[in-house]
Amino acid sequence: MNAPCGHLRRQGTTPAEQPDAAATAPGLCSSSDTAASGAASIPPPQTHTDRHELSDEQLLAAYRQGDTGCFALLVQRYERELFHFLVRFLGDRAAAEDVFQETFLQIHQSADQFDPDRRFRPWLFTIAANKARDLLRSQTRRATSALEASVDPASPEGGDFLQLMSSSAPPADTRMEETEMQRMVQTAVMNMPGHLREILILSYFHEFSYKQIADILGVPLGTVKSRLHAAVACFAELWANISKNKLPPR
Q: Engineered SS bond to 67: which of 62, 123, 141, 173, CB 3.0-4.6 Å?
């Protein structure tokens, strides 16, 4: 299957902002390959209206049959949510752009291996989370240890935490202009240990179920629950320090 040239880039970005997908995977978009993709065995592409009526899984199946427009729509559907996830995870917009592109390049390369009985969204986030972790490891970021704290999510502290998560949801503006509260939340999140940060983001920002998080991170369900409890406690501790100006922004 040929790489979907031009579809790996998020809308609103320019070639100068991130590497070209073709440069990342040389040879995937040659003119001879494009001609070969027009073989009679490939069904005619979906119309624009038809594509928008398809589920994620159906779009990927159509893409596997040669309809590159379906791949473009998948990128469009997840460009905001996945990019925001990566920005929160990595704390760096440029790095998030790179990982976003690498994630969808991996989707292209692994499309034929996708299990049709799975849901596309958790699979997409599994790939993105793995690539983000790989990048953080390659950058040899300083290690931080989990705080030994315990906060009941149902307690007043837990309720405050949920309000903070809600307040940090990105505004409609694609430039993601941040409020002071959002910057403080981001500072707390980025100062958390990676294994707690990722589970917090998946649960509270993107509302994955425990089961889906377990699948994305490749950990037992019980680990998800205990790790999320620790993540809430860690965030509460960091938030208290930020509120007292004891923690510098990151």
A: 62
